[in-house]
Write a structure and sequence with these properties.
Number of strands: 2
Strand content: under 5%
Helix content: 40-55%
Strand order of the largest sheet: 1-2
Number of helices: 18
Distance between the termini: 46 Å
Radius of gyration: 29 Å
Length: about 450
DNA sequence: GTGCCGAGACTTCCTTAACT
DNA sequence: AGTTAAGGAAGTCTCGGCAC
């Protein structure tokens, strides 16, 4: 009996301890789940479909293996909580929620984590060289974290070999290896690193150290502090009032110093929106208050107000294109539509079109240019129909050649067909070989394995 | 200075289609 | 059948415009 079947009837998983608990280097739940699967010689897919999902209280059709969705189990949503509870029961390991943002729910927005995997290649290499367990840190998942302080390098998200983008959970994934080509994702310290400007490094040092401090907090403390943020607006109001009094500032001064708009503050105070960590880090920077100060409602501030680094002059996460930009986008979209007039043009899907226009998701252009999207879809269908027609025509012609060879008493090998159609490169296109196989199946011809004697 | 609304860019959750 | 990608709906955060 294979191990997955055995485990289907079992209720206990190994009590695999998570790495870095209650430290700033704590691992992420996705990393833990991948290691847990490997420890049981199971695919991550089997761990979920055969063990985790059947133990959930309510059914879920959510696919955590969808490239951009796996991050959600490191986040703070209800599903994460359910998965953590099941894993805790099965492994008997307590406090697995420390590997997620579950107990920061009232304090943090749900959009602080990246959708794809980022890592420090030098950290991975260090684990391997020192014979330590290879794992991925929860810290690397944060959108605001760009660098590894220890190795003074940028975090990466592409395989060094095949350059493919990496995601957090893969059906057969193993921590430290590329999803696509299984290349080792670590890198020796001797490899030249991209130089990080000093000012940017200082800002990132503030960001990373702030988040590390938060991640060190244990479960009990996280729960206690989190509850203090149920009344989000009141807390923010208190912080603003304290800054006004301490530094003798007006609201407008605070806005310009922190580079946060008045409307944004309004949304926080009214409890309509939670501040992004990026905004909170900026506000904390000028008053020298850390995220941990805020989270634990210790609203003490530095003696003097300080200015933000010069590089923080615009919000990198929410930049709006100007009106001229919109016209340019429209023109570019028209250009793409016209390309579909040519049958030889490579067909683009909505995601490819979005990326060409500088957006990361198709939703944006779907909403922005709905009429053009309709035209593109219609053209995509036309293109597909034309391709099908070409395939049918080719199939018809190939069939005629095969039947002619058979009537002449000749076995229709690839070589004989090539000679007959006088096109030596015909089977260089793999789909033509598939077509031949299809026709042989239809005509009841057994394809011979090629040997020197065949022809 | 405060409050509201909608636009813009983005994410999460989920379903469906396409590929292997 | 198993796997992957595309797409839709609903929700989140920031910002500009406007009224008071």
């Amino acid at each position: 009996m294979c191990i997955s079947k055995k485990l289907q009837n079992s209720s206990v998983l190994y009590g695999l301890p998570p790495i870095g608990k209650s430290t700033s280097d704590i691992e992420s739940l996705t990393s833990y789940v991948s290691r847990l699967s490997s420890a049981h010689n199971l695919k991550v897919l089997d761990l979920f479909t055969k063990i985790v999902y059947p133990n959930l209280e309510r059914e879920t059709s959510t696919n955590v293996f969808q490239p951009t969705q796996s991050i959600s189990i490191n986040n703070s949503n209800i599903k994460t909580k359910e998965i953590v509870d099941v894993l805790s029961n099965l492994t008997t390991i307590k406090d697995l929620e420390e590997l997620t943002l579950i107990n920061f729910h009232y304090f943090m927005s749900s959009q602080e984590l990246r959708t794809n995997k980022f890592w420090c290649p030098y950290c991975l290499q260090e684990y391997r060289n020192q014979n330590k367990i290879v794992y991925e840190k929860l810290l690397w998942n944060f959108e605001v974290v760009d660098i590894c302080l220890k190795h003074r390098c940028k975090l990466v998200n592409c395989c060094p070999s095949c350059k493919s983008e990496q995601f957090l959970l893969k059906r057969k994934g193993e921590v430290g290896l590329c999803d696509k080509c299984a290349t080792w994702l670590g890198s020796e310290n001797t490899v030249a690193k991209e130089k990080i400007p000093d000012e940017y490094f200082c800002w990132q040092k503030w960001v990373v150290e702030n988040i590390q401090e938060l991640l060190k907090i244990n479960t009990q403390e996280r729960i206690e502090n989190n509850i203090r943020w149920i009344d989000y607006g009141e807390n923010i109001k208190e912080i603003i009032e304290m800054s006004k009094q301490k530094y003798k500032l007006k609201m407008n001064d605070i806005c310009s110093l922190s580079n946060i708009s008045r409307k944004t503050f309004y949304n926080w105070v009214s409890g309509k929106r939670k501040a992004s960590l990026y905004s909170l880090l900026k506000f904390g920077y000028i008053t020298n208050a850390t995220l941990k100060n805020y989270f634990s409602k210790d609203f003490n501030m530095g003696l003097e107000i300080r200015s933000l680094p010069l590089l923080i002059n615009e919000n990198p996460f929410y930049s709006k294109p100007d009106k001229n930009e919109r016209v340019k986008l429209k023109e570019e979209l028209r250009k793409i539509i016209n390309e579909y007039e040519e049958i030889s043009s490579p067909i683009l899907n909505l995601l490819q079109i979005s990326r060409r226009l500088g957006y990361t998701r198709p939703t944006t252009i779907r909403e922005k240019f709905p009429e053009d999207i309709k035209i593109i879809k219609r053209k995509q269908n036309e293109y597909q129909r034309e391709l099908n027609d070409i395939k049918d025509k080719k199939k018809h012609e190939l069939k005629a050649v095969i039947i002619k060879l058979l009537n002449d008493g000749i076995y229709p090998s690839e070589r004989k067909i090539l000679a007959e159609i006088n096109n030596p490169s015909f089977f260089w296109v793999s789909t033509n070989r598939v077509l031949l196989n299809e026709l042989c199946n239809e005509l009841g011809i057994v394809r011979r394995k090629w040997t020197w004697k065949n022809d």
